[in-house]
Amino acid sequence: MAKKKVSDYIAAYLDEFEEKDSYELSRCEFEKEGPNWYLRVYVDKLENGEYAVIGTDDCEKISRYLSKRLDEDDPIEQNYYLEVSSPGMDRPLISDKDFARFMGEAVEVKLYKALDGKKFYEGKLTGYADGIVTITDEKGKEITLQKTDAAKINLAVIF
Known about the structure:
The chain is an alpha+beta fold. It contains three helices and nine strands, in the order αβββαβαβββββ. The chain has helices at 6-21, 56-73, 96-101, and strands at 23-33, 36-47, 50-52, 81-85, 106-115, 118-129, 132-136, 142-146, 150-155. It has a five-stranded antiparallel sheet with strand order 8-7-6-5-9. Strand 1 and strand 2 form a beta hairpin. Helix 1 packs across helix 2. The longest helix has 18 residues, at 56-73. The radius of gyration is 18 Å and the shape is globular. It starts with 5 loop residues before the first helix and ends with a strand. The mean pLDDT is 91.
């Protein structure tokens, strides 16, 4: 049997779990920090087809479920810490689904290399198609860039 990526296992486990409790995988990270490995699972909650606030009780429930499933299948050879949380207010936009869901919202874009002399842009997400991101700044200027040119695209946190 071919090895699957850890994120594939997590997605499959949550698909089983979602049918009962309406949770959706936002993203999954498996990273080494110092001597330790961390499996971080970021989850959204759905209620009646709408996204809802995910709380610590939800994260605990998902963590217990994933821990049990991971122990049963044992797909990860090394020891690791499992962390389950919400994607956060400043969540990164990664998938096409993220860009569609957050169209019209304020975003922050950090670029690998400068575009028009700037590596950081803020504005409203006004377009996304075929890997092309369009944001409109506070002056109404449209900035268009390749998603692959962005180091990060996150929701902006505005208080």
